[in-house]
Every structure is written in C-alpha cells, then in structure tokens.
From TrEMBL:
Belongs to the ABC transporter superfamily. Keywords: Amino-acid transport, ATP-binding, Nucleotide-binding, Transport. PANTHER family: HIGH-AFFINITY BRANCHED-CHAIN AMINO ACID TRANSPORT ATP-BINDING PROTEIN LIVF (PTHR43820:SF4). CDD domains: ABC_TM1139_LivF_branched. One of its GO terms (molecular function) is branched-chain amino acid transmembrane transporter activity. Gene3D superfamilies: P-loop containing nucleotide triphosphate hydrolases. InterPro entries: AAA+_ATPase, ABC_branched_ATPase_LivF/BraG, ABC_transporter-like_ATP-bd, ABC_transporter-like_CS, BCAA_Transport_ATP-bd_LivF, P-loop_NTPase. SUPFAM superfamilies: P-loop containing nucleoside triphosphate hydrolases. Residues 2-234 form the ABC transporter domain. This is ABC-type branched-chain amino acid transport system, ATPase component protein. GO terms for biological process: L-amino acid transport.
Length: 235
C-alpha cells in the first residue's frame, strides 16, 4: 500500500531523514517509534509532500507520488492526522468534519458522517460545539474523524497519544484498532509511546537520528532488550 525507499528530506540545510526504507501492506497497522527529534514527524510530512523529498521515493498503491503537491496526494487516498491535532478551534465539530470531506464525493457525506459518529459517539453529542472547547482526547477523536471523512485507503497518525491521560490513550488506540479491523483502513502510526504503539501494531520500525535502526513484528520489538531499555523505561 505504501512503500518508502531511501527517503531523504529536511529543512534547508538541516537534513532530518537520511535514507528511510519502510513498507506498509494493505490492511496492516505499522508503528514507527523513536525518541523526540528522531524525524518521525518529518517522515509523515515528507510523505504528504511538504517538505519535499530531496532523494528517494514514496509509492502509494503502486503509484510514485514523490514530489506531488499535498492535495494531489490526499486525493489518491491518503489522510493525515497531524501532530498536535490541528483541528479548527473556532469551527464546530460538524464543520471540522465537513473540512475533512472537502475533497470527497459529496454523495457519500451523510454515510461517512454516520460512520465517523458511530466510531466516536462523543463527537455526535458535541456536533455543534466549537472544536476549541473539546477536551484533548475529544480533539484527538475529531482529528482522526476528520481524516476518515475523506475515505482514505491509508491513515497516517502522528502521536495520537500526546498529552492524553492513560485511560483516554487506551480508548483512542482501541478505536484505531477498530478502524483497521472493521473498516479495513491501513494505518501508519508514529509514536513516542512505544508500548501502546507496538502492542497495537502488526509490525513496527524504530527510528534513530533520521534512520531506521530496527524492525520486526510488534511482539518481537516489545520483547527486544534494547527497546525495553531505551523506549519502555526498562520495564
Ligand atoms: P517529535 O516527536 O518531537 O515531533 P520527531 O521524531 O517527530 O520528534 P521531527 O519533528 O521530525 O522529529 O524532527 C527531526 C529533526 O528535524 C529534529 O532535529 C528537528 O530539530 C528538526 N526540525 C523539525 N522541524 C523543523 C523545522 N520546521 N525547521 C528546522 N528543523 C526542524
């Protein structure tokens, strides 16, 4: 579904990605874990076309999308729930969801809205409330719901657990599993919370300083001594 080959990118003269190779098969949940500043967010943003890759390729469903403008990439079935959620705080929940559907076929809107509100009943209760008045967990639900409104083949999630209480993190990850299992959406997730991410994922990758240093099934990585010491607090 998504193949990243030798990808390099950065910001001006600062190179953040030094040749990244990652693949995500259709129907999988794949997690990328790594410390703050490893380049995880830059990878998702480069997949979405901004910043542009300076070398390497991004292939989505067999098509080379490297260098395409972001809206062209989104139109090909990729949706991104960005770090820090970036919902529109002055717009209502419904309006935020409408923004997510802006490039989708309007004929599907009612059905897609029903599907998203079914996944997130809390959003249904707050449909006319402004986005900015929601709790952190509800804003994360809205960011994921908004991304789903475009009927993506693959959903990119950047740090969905950031700043949320453990119970809310568990709820969000359960819903991500449901989106994958029940709705067949492929998920590529980046997280500093390695424990939850690797428990959820079929496969995972570890990134250090803009390079992938390890990969394996979620269970293999969770059992790995080095990962336990560095990313799971030695537990
Ligand atoms: P976090 O989880 O904290 O976002 P990350 O693994 O996602 O960390 P990135 O945000 O991708 O890491 O950062 C990778 C590198 O690129 C870091 O060295 C960071 O300082 C640098 N960087 C990120 N954004 C910019 C920017 N807008 N301009 C310049 N350098 C940046």
């Amino acid at each position: 579904m998504l193949r990243i080959e030798g990808l390099q990118s950065g910001y001006g003269r600062i190179q953040a990605l030094h040749g990244v190779d990652i693949s995500v098969a259709e129907g999988e949940i794949v997690a990328l874990v790594g410390a703050n500043g490893a380049g995880k967010t830059t990878l998702l943003m480069t997949i979405c076309g901004n910043p542009r890759a300076s070398a390497g390729r991004v292939v989505l469903a067999g098509e080379d999308i490297t260098g395409l403008a972001t809206h062209h990439i989104m139109r090909r079935g990729l949706a991104h729930s960005p770090e820090g959620r970036r919902i529109f705080p002055r717009m209502s929940v419904l309006e935020n969801l409408q923004m997510g559907a802006a490039m989708a076929d309007p004929a599907h809107f009612a059905q897609d809205l029903e599907r998203v509100l079914g996944l997130f009943p809390r959003l249904a209760e707050r449909l006319h409330q402004r986005g900015g008045t929601l709790s952190g967990g509800e804003q994360q639900m809205l960011a994921i719901g908004r991304a789903l409104m475009s009927r993506p083949k693959i959903l990119l999630l950047d740090e969905p657990s950031l700043g949320l209480a453990p119970l809310v993190v568990r709820q969000i990850f359960e819903i991500v599993a449901e989106i994958n299992r029940e709705q067949g959406v492929t998920v590529f997730l980046v997280e500093q919370n390695a424990f939850h991410a690797l428990k959820l994922a079929h496969r995972g990758y570890v990134m250090v300083n803009g390079k992938v240093t390890m990969s394996g099934t979620g269970a293999e990585l969770l059992a790995n001594e080095e990962i336990r010491a560095h990313y799971l607090g030695g537990g």
